[in-house]
Amino acid sequence: MRNLITCLSVCVLSGAALADTWTVDDDGKADFDNIQSAIDVASDGDEILVYPGIYTGTGANSNVIQYLNKNIAIESTNGAAVTIIDGENLRRAVQCFASGSLNGFTLTNGYHTGRGGGLSVGGPNSPTISNCLIEFNSSPDGGGVSVRNQSTPSFLNCTIVNNTANQGGGVYIVSPGVAAFMGCSIQDNTADYGGGIFNDATTITISGSTVCSNTPDQLNGSYQDGGGNCVSEICDSDSDGVYDCIDQCPGVDDIDSDGDGVMDCIDQCPGEDDIDRDG
Would you say the C-alpha torsion 61, 157, 141, 54 has a positive or negative sign? Predict the structure, then answer.
């Protein structure tokens, strides 16, 4: 019995030790000075913490980073504004063929000759991409993001903006891939087809998100409306900080000429005091 207890204790302790945390800082004050080197030594369940910096690729690599089929968590310490994965218009920013996570990065200037200039997600995996800014990337299919090969990613609080492609300026999803977007903004992307999202006969769920000002259209293909979405050809025509599809007075100044607390464009009697003459 004592030997059994000892064995179980050793096994539990060994299992707990399997999950490691690696640090990355491009200034060299961490375990590694580039993200890919940390991925190379990481194992399933590990976490990689990335300090602020601009991280680029090297040599003939077609991706700045690739997950190598490892289910790991890659997270910035200070957010997307200061933690940047830059493809330098030479390579894709991120390839994620794993059920890991990516949190708090800017993916920019990514380029790929096939698909997913900023991010390519492949399956069968279910990664979570959160709090990321995906901008100024390009590729024939999916300038910002490509989803394919039975992958089922979730995008949380991400902004996908100013990307270009032939199909799917912001996002390209091909069957049997499936994707969910929650609290995301997909805007100002450009393509020949599907400026915002190009959906090739698969399932997309969009909730609490904004899709607007994409060229030539917002969504090419169907999607499941999870509620709370704003889909509009123009984001904010009057520059009042409120998107047109939820703006009470799109295209006009938000004014209240009679000071009654109701904007003129929805006021029954603009320019007059609200009184009840007949009681």
Answer: negative
